[in-house]
Design a protein that fits this description.
Blueprint: H1 2-15, H2 18-56, E1 60-65, E2 70-72, E3 78-80, E4 83-84, H3 85-94, E5 98-114, E6 117-126, H4 130-133, E7 138-141, H5 146-150, E8 155-158, H6 160-167, E9 176-179, E10 182-190, E11 205-209, H7 210-217, E12 222-223, E13 225-230, H8 236-250, E14 261-265, H9 266-309, H10 311-319, H11 324-360, H12 369-395, H13 399-403
Parallel strand pairs: 6-11, 8-10
Antiparallel strand pairs: 1-13, 1-14, 2-3, 4-12, 5-6, 5-9, 5-13, 7-10, 8-11, 9-10
Helix pairs in contact: 1-11, 2-9, 2-11, 2-12, 9-12, 11-12
Domain MacB-like periplasmic core: 21-246
Domain ABC3 transporter permease C-terminal: 289-399
Transmembrane segments: 21-43, 283-307, 328-357, 369-388
């Protein structure tokens, strides 16, 4: 009964000055809103990193030229920073613990035509084990085989996007398409992988035999990347370091002078994204903490002003028998009520901001239960800590002096 009465009296006092109440809650609104956005983005980033790792492959390594530029080699001679098929063979022969390795060459936005329908798509010239190493099977038809590579066959496997753009719902198996100036027969359709969080369409590709692409379509000797699948009994990071050392040794390049090859592993990919995410999160949490601190100081100072203005009311209540504890509890309840209002408004502001970020940017966002738990803890903690001094001052007022 007493607690309910004190709460009602506190709410009456707060509602009598709505502007002051809003200013008291404003710091909490901003702090909780910022905390909600931070934790939503953090949850979204963790989910995206997990998805990237899953798409990349649990035990995978990808080797690409850093920029395809010339670097100064050991001994003063220039060395070309391009991957060759011989590099893939050397990795296969000299590095232990590999379940599979596949070299490929890619060209982007290549013109493709089927009858009167045209589109542009990426074209990958791949080795026969590309489907296994990239964990990318066909949804229909047949994959690229070793026979296709050995015989320079003019066959191809369509990604889901060019399949729909060129053939719609029709079955493309057995039909011919024109890639550049070379005719290819469609022998399969890749399983769909969808669009990444950054908007990249992974299905916009056509794969052809490696030899056919290198000799008949691209007319080049260097390759775009090498993909490796590592056995579960071997350390992924150690294998990646061994591959990198082998490549620099083969190309006679000192890695201390210039980095010309980039070796991605599943672990390095996760660490890279997690490192960026953690740095940004720490900065934003620091700003969020500053917001709570400022909000708490504003709350305390406004409550001190309120105590000074309500001396007569406090003195009268104490003269009529209100205990010191009653005055203390009433002011603490007022602070908790104000921050409770700020908590709800902050959650609404944070979720609205997170929705806007997800809707109009490429920043990953996902719901986070932790934002509601921490928001409640921080808002109530700020209310109790920063309102304690004003509440004590009100409770310790002498009733005679206060009424006077």
């Amino acid at each position: 009964m007493r607690t309910g009465r004190l709460f009602r009296e506190g709410m009456t006092a707060l509602m009598s000055n709505k502007t002051r109440t809003f200013l008291m809650a404003l710091g909490t609104v901003v702090g909780i809103g910022a905390l909600t956005v931070i934790l939503f983005i953090s949850a979204g980033t963790k989910r995206e990193v997990a998805q990237k790792a899953e798409r990349f492959g649990a035990r995978a390594i990808l080797i690409v030229p850093a920029h395809g530029k010339m670097s100064q080699a050991v001994g003063g001679k220039s060395a070309e920073a391009k991957l060759k098929l011989a590099d893939a063979k050397a990795i296969a022969n000299q590095i232990e613990g590999l379940d599979g390795i596949s070299a490929s060459t890619s060209r982007y936005s290549q013109p493709v035509k089927a009858g009167a329908v045209q589109t542009t798509t990426n074209v990958d010239a791949v080795e026969a084990n590309w489907h296994f190493v990239w964990d990318w099977p066909v949804a229909s038809g047949a994959p690229i085989t070793q026979t296709d590579v050995d015989q320079l066959s003019r066959v191809c496997v369509l990604g889901a996007t060019p399949k729909v753009e060129l053939f719609g719902d029709a079955d493309p198996i057995g039909t011919e398409i024109l890639i550049g100036n070379v005719w290819f027969k469609v022998k399969g359709v890749l399983a769909s992988r969808g669009i990444t969080g950054t908007g990249h369409d992974r299905d916009r590709r056509i794969v052809i035999p490696f030899s056919t692409g290198m000799r008949r379509l691209f007319n080049q000797q260097h390759i775009s990347n090498i993909r490796v699948k590592v056995n579960a009994d071997y350390d992924l990071d150690a294998t990646a370091r061994s591959i990198e050392a082998l490549l620099y040794q083969r190309h006679h390049i000192d890695p201390a002078i210039e980095s010309v090859f980039t070796v991605f592993s599943t672990n390095s990919l996760v660490k890279r994204f997690k490192g960026v995410s953690d740095t940004v999160s720490r900065l934003l949490i620091a700003l969020c903490g500053l917001s709570f601190l400022v909000g708490g100081l504003v709350l305390m100072n406004i409550m001190l002003i309120s105590v000074a203005e309500r001396k007569a009311e406090i003195g009268l209540r104490k003269a009529l028998g209100a205990a010191r504890r009653d005055i203390l509890v009433q002011f603490l309840m007022e602070a908790v009520a104000v921050n409770g209002l700020g908590l709800v408004l902050g959650w609404c502001l944070g979720m609205l901001t997170a929705w806007i970020i997800a809707r109009f940017t490429q920043i990953p966002v996902a719901p986070s239960v932790l934002s509601f738990v921490l928001g409640g803890v921080f808002s109530m903690g700020v209310a109790l800590v920063f309102s304690l001094q004003p509440a004590r001052r009100a409770a310790n007022l002498d009733p005679v002096e206060a009424i006077r």
